[in-house]
């Protein structure tokens, strides 16, 4: 698809490669219509504040010089207040439990599970929803090392996840279809089909990340959305809105570049 709302660069993320500008230039070369610049949050607040300041400066420099729309940027509340107007949208997700990463390796993931008072390995509360992120990414990252885990086996956890989905739908968030799960042995992108059906049941909007080329037809997905600037602030106070594609995704002229 010609839309990407989730990207990283080696310039600001240790597990990525290339510079921010190189990524933008490649997106322009490939004809992307929307290319969002987002970045990971460092675990150390001091490091994050400094790195994020540099990221904001570079992202907006590139936006002005290369005329692409990097709708972007992931932040937390203090920096959101300081940089209101520069942060155009937020990609929200949970990567740590009690300060312990859940997607670093299996050993560390197990430590995160053991650190919880509850015995529910799938429980993920949506504290990050307090900043009303416009995009919810890999909602079931907690299944990274066990893709066959069925949340239906943990009704309390599933109820919490559904509660968070309903809350996000009500303030008009979009849910990311992220194909990175396929690179890690999953049979589907994030989110798994059980959560996808819950999202669809409650009228959730689906949006694509940079390495996803569309959801499977069997999942019952009939429409896709993308972010664009809005003159009117959304529920989070940011001038961004989700817009539904006005034609079937496969009919977009973007695909003629690859035929």
CATH superfamily: Metal-dependent hydrolases
Gross morphology is: globular
SS field, number of helical segments = 7
What helical percentage do the residues reach? 25-40%
Give a structural overview.
The strands form 4 sheets. Strands 3-6-7-8 form a 4-stranded parallel beta sheet, with no helix packed on it. A two-stranded parallel sheet has the order 1-2. A hairpin with a 2-residue loop joins strand 4 and strand 5. It has a single domain, classed as Metal-dependent hydrolases (TIM Barrel, Alpha-Beta Barrel). It has 259 residues and is of the alpha/beta class. The longest helix is centred in the first third of the chain and has 22 residues. It has 7 helices and 10 strands.
Fold topology:
Layout (H helix, E strand, L loop, with lengths): L2 E2 L15 H10 L4 E2 L9 H22 L10 H6 L8 E2 L3 E2 L2 E2 L4 H9 L20 E2 L18 H16 L3 E4 L2 H4 L9 H9 L3 E4 L16 E5 L10 E5 L15
Parallel strand pairs: 1-2, 3-6, 6-7, 7-8
Antiparallel strand pairs: 4-5, 9-10
Helix pairs in contact: 1-2
Kindly summarize this structure in a few lines.
The protein has 259 residues and is of the alpha/beta class.
Question: Can you tag this structure with a few keywords?
Answer:
259 residues, alpha/beta, TIM Barrel, four-stranded parallel β-sheet, two-stranded parallel ribbon, 10 strands, 29% helix, 12% strand, Histidinol-phosphatase
């Amino acid at each position: 698809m010609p839309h990407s709302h989730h990207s990283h660069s080696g310039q600001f993320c240790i597990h990525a490669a290339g510079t921010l500008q190189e990524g933008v230039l490649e997106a322009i070369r490939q004809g992307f219509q929307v290319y969002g610049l987002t970045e990971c949050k460092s675990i150390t607040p001091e490091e994050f504040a400094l790195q994020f300041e540099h990221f904001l400066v570079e992202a907006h420099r590139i936006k002005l010089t290369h005329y692409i729309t990097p709708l972007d940027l992931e932040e937390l509340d203090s920096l959101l207040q300081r940089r209101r107007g520069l942060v155009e949208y937020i990609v929200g997700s949970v990567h740590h439990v009690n300060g312990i990463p859940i997607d670093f390796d299996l050993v560390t993931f197990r430590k995160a599970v053991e650190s919880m008072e509850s015995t529910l390995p799938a429980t993920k509360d949506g504290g990050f929803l307090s900043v009303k992120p416009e995009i919810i990414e890999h909602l079931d990252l907690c299944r990274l090392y066990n893709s066959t885990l069925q949340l239906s086996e943990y009704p309390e956890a599933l109820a919490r996840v559904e509660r968070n989905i309903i809350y996000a739908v009500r303030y008009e968030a979009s849910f990311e279809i992220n194909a990175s799960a396929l690179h890690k042995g999953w049979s589907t992108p994030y989110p798994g089909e059980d959560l996808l059906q819950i999202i669809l049941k409650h009228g959730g909007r689906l949006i694509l990340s940079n390495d996803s080329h569309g959801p499977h037809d069997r999942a019952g997905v009939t429409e896709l959305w993308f972010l664009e600037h809005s003159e009117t602030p959304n529920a989070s106070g940011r001038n961004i809105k989700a817009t539904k594609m006005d034609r079937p995704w496969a009919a977009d002229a973007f695909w003629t570049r690859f035929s």
